[in-house]
Amino acid sequence: MADAAEKLSISMPRKLASAARKRAGQRGLSSFVSRAVARELEREALGQFLQELEATLGPIPESELKRARRVWPKR
Amino acid sequence: MAEALILDSEALNALANPGTRSSLTVRARAVAQVAHERGALLRVPAPVLAEVCRGLRFDAAVNLLLNRGAIVVTDLTREISQRAGALLTRTRMSSANAIDAFVVATALEFDAAVIASGDTADLARLAAPYRQISLLRL
Lengths: 75, 138
What we know:
The structure holds 2 protein chains of 2 kinds.
Chain A: H1 14-24, H2 29-57, H3 62-71
Helix pairs in contact in A: 1-2
Chain B: E1 3-7, H1 9-16, H2 22-38, E2 41-45, H3 48-52, H4 56-66, E3 72-74, H5 78-91, H6 98-107, E4 112-117, H7 121-127, E5 133-137
Parallel strand pairs in B: 1-2, 1-4, 2-3, 4-5
């Protein structure tokens, strides 16, 4: 079941707000912003997790990082 | 473009139990690190939990990892389930491969995805037609 929604009043730079509205449409803005916030929280949590692993287990060998990079599509 | 790193049971276990699975953990960390650098999402298809949650001793580490919020469990929806069935039909694979099919069907939710797995042979058959899916064997 989805969480109940909470209405927030936030401020953001005018240009950013305009770009978000243009991308999401006026009615889809809440969903667009919610997804963006969820992604950022996930990204921060992953960064923190990986840092903790590095502190405990040491750095990831460069050879393994190269191997992992090869499987992702080129940009 | 939404990208995702899809974790199967070996990959999830490797990250949940980093002290006891060293070589798998290094590879799982590497692919997670690259995913983080690219801004990709980390996802575990819900059926994978049926393979790794086998009692309190195993569940505790998995729950601890998932509760951090860095890796999100993707619900098994009707659409994903039916897509998985179509993959099994196309490859003439049996229901014994259902979890692999759910993993590939979940990967297809994204514009591009890497599946990290301990055994990629069956996944490779299922994902063969899809250029947006890559496989990384741990």
